[in-house]
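Hey, quick one: can you model this chain's 3D structure?
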Amino acid sequence: MDPPPFDRPQYFLRHFEHLDRSLYRPQLAGIGISGTIGAGVFISCAVMSAVRLGISGSVGGPLSYLVAGFIVGSVMYTISEMVACRPLTGALIDFPHTFIDPALGFAVCTIYLLANAPSMATLTEQTTELVANFYDPPQPLSNGTKAGINVFLICLTTVSHCFGVRFYGSLERVIMWFKLCLIVLVCILMLVVNVGGGGPRASSFHANYTEHGFPPGFKPTGFNGTSLNTTLQTSGTDDAHFGIPGSGGVFVAFLNSVTIAIFACMGGDLVIMTAGEAADPWNDLPAVTSFVYLIPLFLYPIATFTAGANVNYGDPYLSHPWGKTSESLSPFIIAVRTTSLHGLYYALNFFFMICAYTAANTALYVSTRAAFIWAQNYMSKWIANTVGRTNNGNTPLTAILFCSVLGFLSLVGLSKDEYSQPRLTLSEFYTGSIACVYISECLTFLKFKAGLDELEKRRIFSRNDPRYIRYLFKSQWQPLFAYIGIIGCGIVILFSGFPALFIIKARSSLTDVSNLKKAEALVWDAIGAYFGPLLFLCLYFAYKYGYPRTEAVHIRDLTLSTYLFPADMSEIELDNRNAADAARNQNPIEQQPRPDVTLAEAQNTLVSNRLEARKKRKWRGILRELWSFVVADKAEERQSNSTRTNMT
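Sure thing. Here's the predicted structure for all 648 residues.
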């Protein structure tokens, strides 16, 4: 009889299915960076970067990126240590499942799937919207044209994933360097435009942008100039003078800019979802995770600062998410349109479309892996045999088709184009949902560390053990960064819906609301902000107190084997149980220590055998380390290919 999903052990203990471990460091970095940059400074720039500049100014925008990037970087730095210990398929789900509660693992897995599949829809729809920018001035596309482009892109994305992860990883490797080069070139271009290299400035450019780095308050409809001393009031006025004035308004604007910026910084977690397809997870995953989260910490603020040096918060083409605005443009596009470099405007728009589409491609990738783990770990045997099944090339084709169908949510936005509300609501849902995942991972690390501290008290193993530092990864100054991730993401969740609720409450006391969003659109903003966290809690409690009830993991259950896996992942992820037993029997000392050996000596031998069988990570200098993200080590690649051939 098939056991209930709640009673089943995790998939890797049953050797039911596994993915193809064929990705090396350049491919892993390509997947992570392609998703991060695509969903960040370029794609969001048509809305998000423009919103940040329009809300918090040319100084507040880059600062909001610094704060948001530091929060996300703290989370990724925290996760890096756990993935170095347990680089399993669906590692992001495995951590809370193993260290806290299977119910938390279920909630993280389900919400991660539900967040990334709509994210693919959001980015696909935004790619379609960028087509309108090829008209000058931009003109909205017909619903038929939008539907055709959306369907074509979704089908193209689906087909590209069906060729297997090796093809996809190679594609993302090229796209990564395309995006990194593009962001550097765009920054240089903005500096050239700023010093007059693009010819005389015209149109919406305001010469006094450098004198006003911050707006004079929080104005929902957006400022239409920097030279106007607009007196803002929260009631008894029209929408043109509605807002929060003074330092309080500046703080609200900046805090709201941070909540929008964190959407753009999210994406480093994509690397953790590649753990089950990493050819050398012990060495590559910690390095790649660190490399990816440096992008939002350093490149995003620089890019936003160079854009803000050419566009101020009063530019009419900047997006204002709570005002009744028409078309909005990327600040990079706005800056170029005001120069004589007209052909460059179309080239940039085309490049941004590529970034948008590839980001949607990455969102489909992680959602399919989440669906694979969701089916294998938590669903019935029938679902596990369909959505959780792979083909002979270890590609989860059914999961790909399942998640691709969810991508057609992009067509929902065609029914009501006003404010691009469906896309904004899905973006807000993504931010709140992933923030819940980040909080869960940081809480998991606290339990992860507590378990190691308990092992240290019993003189079994320690984070301070030289072997732990040499072969695994110890994130310094912990648990400080874990607390930063918890508090920062918590503030983002609580504040993300505040502007919509504030405007809804104040609308009845205003004399004119014609330039504000309609009440129903604001309600959808609030729903998008808080529905993700609410759904996350419902999923957790439904699993926690379902049938049968699940119990939290006690710290005494975190044994040495929880933290130390064999160096050869084939001992865990082989389909053939007999082959796995034979691999383990090659090290009989790990299974049956001699009678004259004490328990402490046997445990110490186990630690040495498992860790020293791995390749020691070596720091080869910053240039050589950076080069390893361009070209994989050929000797390591041949060794890994030989191991995979022997497994087969």
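One thing worth noting: The two ends are 30 Å apart (CA to CA).
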